[in-house]
Amino acid sequence: MVILIFFISIFSILCLFLWFFKERKYKTSDSVASAYDDWTNDRLLEKLWGDHVHLGYYTLGLPNRDFRSAKVDFVHELVRWSGLDLLPRGSRVLDVGCGIGGSSRILSRDYGFDVVGITISRAQVDRANQLSPSDLLCRFEVMDALQLKFEKGSFDGIWSVEAGPHMPDKQLYADEMLRVLRPGGVLAVADWNSRDLEEKGMSNLEELVMNQLLNQWAHPEFASINGFRRNLLNSRFCGGSVDVDDWTKYTLPSWNDSIFEGFRRPGAVLGLGPNALMKGLREIPTILLMRWAFACGLMQFGVFRTRG
Length: 308
Prior knowledge:
By secondary structure, the chain is α/β, with parallel strands linked by helices. It has helices spanning 2-20, 29-41, 44-49, 67-82, 102-111, 122-131, 170-179, 204-216, 225-234, 248-251, 253-264, 266-270, 274-296, and strands at residues 92-96, 114-119, 138-142, 155-161, 181-194, 242-246, 299-307. Helix content is 49%, strand content 17%.
């Protein structure tokens, strides 16, 4: 009974936090750009998590890595799993939803790729360019992933991590990435996905949680793993089979670590002033709800690979 009361109390506090702070519902692509401009300009996420906003990869059975190291590990694991590492040095790779360029810099530095990173956030592009050494073959542009300004078959590889939830049209998202991928090129995608809600619907509690996960971080909707696999297969630009996997168990520790970083690096938050502290506290309820959703099976971490 004590444990039940504890969890009810925690959930009540989370609901109060989420009610008190203004939601960031998806309205248009501008609402996504505005959210990422804010997160980038205050440097809070960069100070806490480093160059990468995405989750980390934790090898099962081994002690948890440092959160920032786990994020780097994630990049290398997805490169290997997708087959992107089989591309020769000098291959041209598009990073869709590049953030401040953490993955792009690894792809360029460690694999010798010529990387173009795109994001809808002007602030992210500016910061990515500031952080990237001039000797790396990577550059960054403001661009909508649903309206890529590249010719068909322009890239040898496509890379996209945790960008899909912001896309209102998942089929167009798949089509555009595959359109600019050359025949035989490699596509690697990793995303937050809902479970297949056609097979198993949501309880009242799950509906409440899902609503917050969508509205707090400007997500129009989550695709399921099978749903986005169908989007890729249904694209007229798809060159063959689509392989998928569920990496929830490898990425789940990221959610707790993303909060613990604030305690490991208190100066990173406090040094940015009281506004940054309040913004950091504002994100904790959504992070905890994300962790709960992934642990309970409402959400899954899907990875996808295919050829052009």
